[in-house]
Write a structure and sequence with these properties.
- The complex is a heterotrimer of chains A (321), B (372) and C (385).
- Chain A is globular, with a radius of gyration of 20 Å.
- Chain A is built from 14 helices and no strands.
- Chain A has 321 residues and is mainly α.
- The longest helix of chain A is centred in the N-terminal third of the chain and has 28 residues.
- In chain A, helix 13 packs antiparallel against helix 14.
- Chain A has a single domain, classed as Orthogonal Bundle (ABC transporter involved in vitamin B12 uptake, BtuC), CATH 1.10.3470.
- Chain B folds into 2 domains: 102 residues, Response regulator (Rossmann fold), CATH 3.40.50; 196 residues, Rossmann fold.
- Chain B is 37% helix and 19% strand.
- Chain B is built from 10 helices and 15 strands.
- In chain B, strands 2-1-3-4-5-11 form a 6-stranded parallel β-sheet, sandwiched between helices. Chain B has a 4-stranded parallel β-sheet with strand order 8-6-7-15, with helices on both faces. A 3-stranded mixed β-sheet of chain B has the order 9-10-12.
- The radius of gyration of chain B is 24 Å and the shape is globular.
- With 385 residues, chain C is mainly alpha-helical.
- Chain C has 2 domains: 90 residues, no CATH class; 260 residues, ABC transporter involved in vitamin B12 uptake, BtuC.
- In chain C, helix 8 packs across helix 9.
- Classes of the chains: A mainly alpha (321), B alpha/beta (372), C mainly alpha (385).
- Chains A and C meet through helix 4, helix 5, helix 12 and helix 14 of A and strand 1, helix 5, helix 6, helix 13 and helix 15 of C.
Chain lengths: 321, 372, 385
C-alpha cells in the first residue's frame, strides 16, 4: 500500500515541494509589504551554495553543523535581498528590473556559480545532509508513514514556519500593519508606520527564506552542488504565491501540489502508465492553474480583491514639502 | 560651473585613454615558440562529475604531457547551435587550431567549411569531412560488464527487476541500455530492466525522482545512463546496490556502489593533438575499445562478490581477444521478434536500425518505451 | 519623536538635460570601478580584463559579427518591453512571445520555403507570421488585464513557462511538423527540421574585420525602433498611450478608450517580441530550436527588459544599449575559460545593471544633506534660478 502511486506521489510532493514552500513563504512576505521580488532564483542559488559550503568546511557531522549551514544559507539569501531592498526601497528603482538584475548577478551564470567553482564545491557529496530520522517502524505505517513520518527535519521545520507566519499575519499587530503597508503605503505612513523599515525587514526575511529553500536542495534533496542546481524553482515559487492567494497555509498546499506534479511523469513511466504527453501537461498545469486563479481573484464581483496587495510593485515615495 | 565640468570630463577622458592605450590586449606573449592552441567545448559544466568532467580530465592529461608546447582551454555550458558557432568564431579569432567538440550535433558542415584552418574532432557524431573527424568508442562493452555486476546483485537480492535511469531516447542511450540488460541477463537470467527517461543528460533532481519511481515500482538494483550521481545517492539512502556511469562515483554511495563504465579520453586526445602538431593528422572515424584504453571498469565496491569479479574478468578477456561480442545475434526485441540472426555481429554504422548508431529498439527484457 | 535623518530625498521639479546623459555614464563608470575591485580581489587585472572584454566585443576579427548576433534578439525584446513599459504595462512575457513567434515563423518558413536563394515573399511571410504568433501570445495577458483587471506582470510571466514547455514538446516529445524526422541524423538526436534555402534570411556583408554580416533581423529591429519612436512621439495613439501611462483616471476622463489601448499595446509589444523569434529562426538557427538548454536558456526576453530600462524606454537608446549589452554577452562568452570563471561575467554584468538602475534615482530625485546647526547643504549643484 505504501508503494501505491497515490502514496508515493504525495510523499514525493511533500519532499520536493519543500524548497518551493520556503521560497514562496519568503516571497509572500516581501509581496505583502508591496515589493515584487523577482530575484528569488538568485537568492536560492546563493543560499544553496553557501549552505553546502558550510557543511563542507565544518567537518563534524552533527546536527549543529546542519543548523549552522541553514543559518549561513539564510544569511546569504538575506545579503542578496539587501541589495534588492536598497535598490527598490531606498533608491526607488523599478522593482521588476532590479529583481531581474539580481537574478543575473547572483544566478547560475553569476555569483553563485563563481563561489561554487572557486570554493571547489562541485563533484563531491555533501559531508552531512538531512535524512529521514524517525524510527523505521513509524515510517512504515500505512499511508501516513511515508507521507508524514518519512520526511527530514527541514520538512517539519517548514511546517512550523507556515504556522508562525500565518499567526504573524493574522494575529499580531506587526502583521496587520504589514497588510496596510502592502495595500496602501500612504495610509500606513500617516498612521505612523515606518513603511521603509517594514519593506526592508520583509524583503530581507524573504531573502533568508529563499536561501533556506536553496539549501534544502543541496543539503536534503540532492546532497551535492552544481551550477544552477535550483533549475527554476525560484520562478515557480513566485507563481506559487499567487496560486496560494498570498496565504501561507495555501502556500503549503500549493507547494506540495506543484512538487507532486513534478514527480508525476517519472512515476507514471516507471509503472508503464502512459497518459499522452505527460511531461507537457504535468509541467504546464501549475502555471495554467495559477493564471486561472489570478483571473478569478482579480475580477471578483465585489470590488474587494482577495489577495494581491494593492501596492505590489509600486515604489513608495513620501511627499515632503 | 559648466566649464569646470567639461574640463574635468576632458581630463578624465584623457587619463582613461592613456591607461587604455598603455595596456596591451594581453593576448599575445613574446614566447620563443608559439604553443599550439587546442580548445575543448563542453555541453555541461567542466566539473559535473560525469561526461564533461571526464573530457576535462583528458584535456588536463594532454596539458600535462605536452607542457608548454600546447595551450589548452575549455568553454563550458555551450548549447548546440548558434552558441556553439559563436564559441568557435571567438576561438578562431584567438588563434585556436584544434577543437574537440564533446557532444553530438555541435559540428555542422557549414561551420567546418567556414573555418578550414581548424581541425574539428567531434564526439558521438557521424559527420566526417576534410577537417572534421569523429570519435567515440565501445562503452557498450564495459556497460555490458557493469550490467553483469548489477544482475549478480539482483540475483543475490532475489528480485528480478533492475531500474535504469536514462536520458534521451536516442540510439546511443538505447544501445547502452541494451548492453546493460544483456549483461544483467548473463548473471541473472530472466532479469527485467525498467527504464525511466529524464530528457536531460544532467538533472540531479529529475534523476533522483526517476530513481525513486523505479524503486517504488519494484526495482532492487539501480543503474543509469545519465551524468549525475543523484541516482546513487538515492540508492545509498535506501540501501540498494547501484551501478554508475561516466566516472568513478564511489564516494557518493560507498556502500551501494558496484562499478561503472568509465571513459578515458586522455590517450586518444594526446594521440590526435600530437598528430595535428606534426602534420600527420587525418580525419576519420575512431571507435575505441577496451584494448586501446578508451573505456574500462571503475574499481569495484564492497558489494561485488569475488565470484562475480571472476566472471566479469573472464568476459572482459573474451571481449578483448575478440571471442565474445555482446551484440552478436540472436537478439530479440521487446515484442519477441528476432532482430539479429544467430551469429551475426552488429556493425557500428552499417545496417540501418540494426547498426549500433541506428538502433532504435530495445532488447527483450527491457520494460519501457524506446520512444522516450 | 523619531530622529530626523540627516539626508532627505526630494523629488526634482525640473530635470536638467545634462543629467540625463551624465547619470547613466557616471553610473556605468561607478560600476566599472566596483567591478574592478571585484576583479582585483579575485586575482585578475581590471584594466587588462576590460581591454580583453572590449576587444572580444568589438575589435577582434569576427567580434562585431558575434556581437550583432547577440544583440539582435536583445534589440527586439528590448523594444517589445519599451513599447509596453512606457505605458506602464509591464509585459514580462517577451520571452514566451519570442518562442511563439519562432514557432509560427518556422512553420511558415517550412511550409512556403523551397529551393533557390532567399525569397522576399517567403521571408516577408515569416516576418508576418512571427509577429502574429507573438501578438497572439501577448494578447492573452492583454485581454486578461483589459477585461478582468488581472495583473499582466504575473500572467505574462507565467505564460513564459507554458510557451517554453510547448516549444520543447514540439521538438523533443512529439513527431510534430517542426521536427526533423527524415534521414539518419534525425534518429540520433531530436532536432528541428532545417529551413529550406529560400526561407533563410539574408544578411548584408561588409568587408570589415575580415568580413562581417549584418543580419536582416538587425535591420528590421532598427526599422521597428523608428516605427516605435514615430508611434509614440508623433501620433495620437502614442500621445493617448502616454496619458494612460501617467494617469489612468485622467485618460478615462479624457475619453480615451482604455481597454482598446491596453489590447493594442500588448498586441504590438508581443508582435515585436514574436518578430525577434522569427529572426532567431530565419537569421541564426535555421530550424526551430526546442532544446531546453538552447534558446530557452539564453534569457533574451528577460535581458531585453533590462536593456529597455537602461534605455529609459527610448527606442533608439534601446537599440544602442542592446548593441552594447550584446557586446558584453559576447565578450563574456569569449573570455570564459579555465582562467576566467564563467560566474564572474554574470557578477560584472549584475554590478553594471545595479549601478545603472541606482543612478535612476539621481535623475528623478535630489539628495539633500542637512548639516548640524540648521544649515542646509544641497548634495547636488544648485540649479540656476
Amino acid at each position: 500500500m505504501n508503494n501505491s502511486l497515490a502514496v508515493v506521489l504525495i510523499a514525493s510532493g511533500v519532499a520536493y515541494g519543500t524548497p518551493l514552500l520556503f521560497a514562496s513563504l519568503g516571497e509572500l512576505l516581501a509581496e505583502r509589504s508591496g515589493v515584487l521580488n523577482l530575484g528569488v532564483e538568485g537568492m536560492m542559488l546563493v543560499g544553496a551554495v553557501m549552505g553546502f559550503w558550510t557543511v563542507e568546511r565544518v567537518h563534524a557531522t552533527t546536527a549543529f553543523t546542519l543548523v549552522l549551514a541553514l543559518l549561513i544559507a539564510a544569511l546569504a539569501g538575506a545579503v542578496m535581498a539587501a541589495i534588492l531592498a536598497f535598490l527598490v526601497v531606498t533608491l526607488r528603482a523599478n522593482q521588476i528590473v532590479s529583481g531581474l538584475a539580481l537574478t543575473i548577478f547572483a544566478g547560475a551564470a553569476g555569483l553563485s556559480s563563481y563561489l561554487g567553482n572557486n570554493l571547489n564545491l562541485a563533484d563531491r557529496p555533501a559531508r552531512h545532509s538531512f535524512q529521514a530520522f524517525l524510527p523505521n517502524s513509524m515510517q512504515n505505517w500505512p499511508i501516513v508513514g511515508p507521507i508524514l513520518f518519512g520526511q527530514n527535519a527541514l520538512v517539519y521545520f517548514s511546517w512550523v514556519c507556515v504556522v508562525v507566519i500565518a499567526l504573524y499575519l493574522s494575529r499580531t499587530r506587526l502583521g496587520l500593519n504589514l497588510r496596510a503597508v502592502g495595500e496602501s503605503p500612504a495610509a500606513a505612513d500617516t498612521m505612523g508606520i515606518n513603511v521603509t523599515r517594514y519593506r526592508y525587514v520583509h524583503v530581507l526575511v524573504g531573502g533568508a527564506f529563499a536561501g533556506l529553500g536553496g539549501a534544502t536542495i543541496t543539503l536534503a534533496i540532492t546532497p551535492q552542488w552544481v551550477s544552477g542546481i535550483t533549475e527554476g524553482a525560484g520562478w515557480i515559487a513566485i507563481a506559487l504565491v499567487i496560486f496560494a492567494f498570498w496565504r501561507p497555509e495555501l502556500c503549503l498546499v500549493g507547494a506540495y501540489f506543484f512538487g507532486a506534479l513534478q514527480a508525476l511523469a517519472p512515476q507514471l513511466q516507471a509503472r508503464n502508465i502512459s497518459l499522452g504527453p505527460t511531461v507537457l501537461w504535468a509541467n504546464a498545469l501549475p502555471y495554467l492553474m495559477t493564471i486561472a486563479v489570478l483571473v478569478v481573484v482579480s475580477s471578483g464581483t465585489t470590488r474587494r480583491r482577495l489577495g494581491a496587495p494593492a501596492a505590489l510593485g509600486v515604489a513608495y515615495v513620501r511627499e515632503e514639502h | 560651473m559648466m566649464r569646470r565640468k567639461t574640463a574635468l570630463a576632458v581630463l578624465l577622458a584623457a587619463v582613461f585613454a592613456l591607461v587604455w592605450a598603455s595596456v596591451g590586449s594581453g593576448s599575445t606573449t613574446g614566447n620563443k615558440a608559439k604553443p599550439y592552441k587546442v580548445a575543448w567545448i563542453y555541453v555541461g559544466p567542466h566539473n559535473d562529475g560525469g561526461w564533461s568532467q571526464a573530457h576535462n580530465a583528458g584535456r588536463l592529461y594532454v596539458q600535462k604531457m605536452l607542457g608548454s608546447k600546447v595551450q589548452t582551454t575549455y568553454k563550458e555550458n555551450i548549447a548546440v547551435g548558434s552558441q556553439f558557432n559563436q564559441t568557435v568564431a571567438s576561438l578562431a579569432a584567438q588563434g585556436y587550431k584544434m577543437i574537440f567538440a564533446t557532444s553530438y550535433g555541435y559540428v555542422t558542415k557549414s561551420i567546418a567549411k567556414k573555418y578550414p584552418q581548424i581541425k574539428f574532432e567531434q564526439a558521438t557524431g557521424t559527420l566526417v569531412t576534410k577537417n572534421v573527424s569523429e570519435y567515440f568508442g565501445r562503452a557498450e562493452d564495459t556497460i555490458f560488464l557493469s550490467g553483469m555486476a548489477a544482475g549478480a546483485a539482483a540475483k543475490a537480492a532475489n528480485c528480478k527487476t533492475i531500474g535504469f535511469v536514462v536520458a534521451y531516447a536516442i540510439p546511443e542511450v538505447i544501445r547502452h541500455t541494451n548492453a546493460f540488460t544483456l549483461g544483467a541477463q548473463r548473471t541473472d537470467p530472466g532479469a527485467k530492466v525498467k527504464i525511466v527517461w529524464t530528457n536531460s543528460w544532467f538533472a540531479p533532481a529529475k534523476e533522483k525522482q526517476a530513481a525513486e519511481s523505479l524503486h517504488a515500482a519494484g526495482a532492487c538494483v539501480l543503474g543509469q545512463n545519465v551524468d549525475s550521481p543523484a541516482t546513487g545517492q538515492y540508492a545509498e539512502s535506501v540501501h540498494i546496490p547501484w551501478v554508475g556511469y561516466d566516472s568513478d562515483s564511489a564516494k557518493f554511495a560507498p556502500k551501494s556502489w558496484l562499478t561503472a563504465s568509465v571513459y578515458n579520453w586522455g590517450p586518444y586526445y594526446l594521440k590526435r593533438v600530437k598528430a595535428a602538431m606534426n602534420g600527420t593528422w587525418h580525419s576519420g572515424f575512431y571507435y575505441g575499445t577496451i584494448n586501446d584504453g578508451f573505456t574500462k571498469l571503475a574499481p569495484y565496491g564492497p558489494g561485488v562478490t569475488a565470484k562475480t569479479k571472476q566472471l566479469i574478468a573472464k568476459y572482459e578477456k573474451k571481449i578483448e581477444n575478440g571471442s565474445f561480442y555482446e551484440f552478436t545475434g540472436p537478439l530479440y526485441d521487446q515484442s519477441g521478434k528476432l532482430r539479429v540472426k544467430k551469429g551475426v555481429k552488429m556493425q557500428v554504422l552499417k545496417g540501418g536500425t540494426n547498426s549500433l548508431y541506428g538502433m532504435n529498439w530495445l532488447v527483450k527484457g527491457v520494460i519501457g518505451s524506446p520512444k522516450g | 519623536m523619531r530622529p530626523r535623518l540627516p539626508v532627505t530625498i526630494e523629488q526634482r521639479l525640473r530635470r536638467p538635460r545634462w543629467l540625463a546623459v551624465a547619470v547613466p555614464v557616471g553610473s556605468v563608470i561607478f560600476a566599472f570601478l566596483v567591478a574592478a575591485l571585484v576583479l582585483v580581489a579575485t586575482g585578475h587585472g581590471p584594466v587588462s580584463t576590460y581591454r580583453q572584454l572590449f576587444d572580444a566585443a568589438f575589435v577582434e576579427k569576427g567580434s562585431l559579427d558575434q556581437t550583432l548576433i547577440a544583440a539582435t534578439p536583445l534589440a527586439f525584446t528590448g523594444l517589445a518591453a519599451a513599447a509596453a513599459f512606457r505605458m506602464k504595462l509591464y509585459n514580462i512575457g517577451a520571452e514566451g512571445q519570442m518562442y511563439m513567434g519562432a514557432i509560427t515563423g518556422a512553420a511558415v518558413g517550412l511550409y512556403l520555403g523551397g529551393r533557390g536563394g532567399p525569397s522576399p515573399f517567403v521571408i516577408a511571410a515569416m516576418v508576418v507570421a512571427g509577429g502574429v504568433g507573438g501578438m497572439a501570445w501577448g494578447l492573452i495577458p492583454g485581454i486578461l488585464r483589459a477585461f478582468f483587471r488581472t495583473s499582466e506582470i504575473l500572467t505574462s510571466l507565467l505564460l513564459n513557462y507554458v510557451a517554453g514547455l510547448f516549444l520543447t514538446y514540439l521538438i523533443f516529445d512529439s513527431e510534430s511538423y517542426w521536427r526533423q524526422t527524415k534521414g539518419f541524423n534525425a534518429t540520433v538526436f531530436p532536432t528541428g527540421k532545417p529551413l529550406p534555402p529560400s526561407a533563410i534570411w539574408p544578411g548584408l556583408s561588409f568587408n570589415l574585420q575580415g568580413g562581417i554580416v549584418f543580419p536582416l533581423g538587425a535591420g528590421l529591429a532598427v526599422l521597428v525602433a523608428v516605427l516605435l519612436w514615430f508611434l509614440y512621439s508623433r501620433t495620437r495613439f502614442g500621445f493617448e498611450a502616454q496619458v494612460l501611462g501617467d494617469s489612468p483616471r485622467a485618460a478615462r476622463y479624457a475619453g480615451i478608450r482604455v481597454r482598446r489601448k491596453i489590447l493594442a499595446v500588448m498586441a504590438f509589444s508581443g508582435a515585436i517580441a514574436g518578430l525577434g523569434g522569427a529572426s532567431q529562426v530565419g537569421d541564426f538557427s535555421h530550424a526551430l530550436d526546442g532544446d531546453p538548454n538552447g534558446l530557452q536558456l539564453r534569457g533574451y526576453g528577460y535581458t531585453g527588459i533590462v536593456v529597455a530600462a537602461l534605455g529609459r524606454y527610448n527606442p533608439f537608446a534601446v537599440v544602442v544599449i542592446a548593441f552594447l549589452i550584446g557586446g558584453l554577452q559576447n565578450a563574456g562568452a569569449a573570455l570564459q575559460g579555465p582562467s576566467f570563471p564563467s560566474g564572474l561575467v554574470g557578477v560584472i554584468q549584475g554590478i553594471i545593471l545595479f549601478a545603472a538602475l541606482g543612478g535612476e534615482l539621481l535623475t528623478r530625485y535630489r539628495i539633500r544633506i542637512h548639516l548640524r546647526g540648521g544649515r542646509r547643504v544641497s548634495g547636488r549643484v544648485p540649479e540656476a534660478a
